[in-house]
Amino acid sequence: MEWYLPVIWSFIIAVAVIMYVILDGFDLGIGILFPFAKEERHRDQMMNTVAPFWDGNETWLVLGGGGLWVAFPKAYGVVMPALYLPIIIMLLALVFRGVAFEFRWVAATSRKWWNLAFSGGSTLAAFCQGVVLGGLVQGIRVENGAFSGGSFDWATPFCFACGIGVVAGYALLGSTWLIMKTDGPVAVQARQTARLLLPVVIGFMVIVSLWTPLAFDRIAQRWFTLPNLFYLAPIPLVTALVAFQVWRGLKGSAEVWPFLGCIALFVLGFLGLGISTFPYLVPPHLTVWETAAAPASQIFMLFGVIFLLPVVLGYIAFVYWIFRGKVREGEGYH
Questions:
Q1: CA torsion sign, 114 to 48 to 321 to 247?
Q2: Residue 110 falls within a domain, yes or no?
Q3: Tens of pLDDT along 245-281?
Q4: Least confident of 103-117, 127-141, 257-271, 296-310
């Protein structure tokens, strides 16, 4: 087997996941923040900031899940039964969120219920994504290459803590997006909310960073043995520096930097989790090489990705450029 093919596909899936987390994260964050808006016109303004983007942002979820199925079918066959319940609940919540997004504009008499559906779907989807992440990090029981655990192995305090942390993180991302894309009362409230959420998110990052090496020996060995300790020490230091700069931006009048800084925090957190688990795709048993599809299948799909990925990235850049600037009260794209 060509050893480099699973590594390339791991990188592609990692890119798809982090792109999804960033791009769909801020519009899920809008939904999480929805109940805290003071007036309906403020909710209209919030929703209009993501109206041109939200459905395209979910494309990356398809690439991540499809890439796992095509390039690592054995891992897909283990992960799905292990995390079936939170994954299916997440997908149903995303569908509910999408339906609510469309119906809210036209259902004037029942708008409050669609507001609830939009907010509830966004919050539940974010929580389930955190639970899935926690379930992967804590490990999946495998025997003879197949899942051997129970349906509720993911229902642990660690997974629930990850779920709450992701909800807080998406809300922070959504609030900094509103700072950048809105003005008036919505932007003012978003800045106040972001100041409250940033310490919460950093707290969850610290908790997970301490919990994982204390609970899982494989992660402790990865981070705290020499010479890894020296190589990896810059990651938490850079994370702390970025968090401080985001805080300064929120305390001041910066509009773009808090959002970009929060993206950097997500990327650094994702990098830390990747370092903790790679090369295991199903921790702590199956590596990317053990779960990889036949080289011919990986090469065939890789040609498609090589041609399509630049098109998708170009389209995303074009859309975000076209709809740049602030969305003021009363403006919209629906």
A1: negative
A2: yes
A3: 999 999 888 889 999 999 999 999 999 888 888 888 8
A4: 103-117
> What domain range is 128 assigned to?
10-322
Using the CB atoms, write b or e for 69-81: b if 16+ within 10 Å: ebbbebbbbbbee
Please check whether residue 87 lies inside any domain of the structure. yes
The DSSP-derived string for 250-319 is: HHTT-SSHHHHHHHHHHHHHHHHHHHHHTTEEETTTEETTTS---HHHHHHHHHHHHHHHHHHHHHHHHH
What's the pLDDT at 129? 94
Which tokens in the block code for residue 29? 């964050």
327, part of any domain: no
Query: Helix axis angle, 84-103 relative to 111-138, nearest 10°?
Result: 150
Q: Count of alpha carbons within 13 Å of 271, Cβ hemisphere only?
A: 13
pTM listed for this prediction: 0.92
Number of domains in the chain: 1
Peptide bond into 234 cis (omega under 30): no
Q: Within 10 A of 27 (CB to CB), how many other CB atoms are there?
A: 26
Identify whether 241 is part of a domain.
yes
pLDDT band at 114 (very low <50, low <70, confident <90, very high): confident
Alpha-helix runs per DSSP H in the chain: 4-33, 40-48, 54-57, 59-71, 73-82, 84-103, 111-138, 157-181, 185-215, 217-224, 228-232, 234-251, 257-277, 295-322
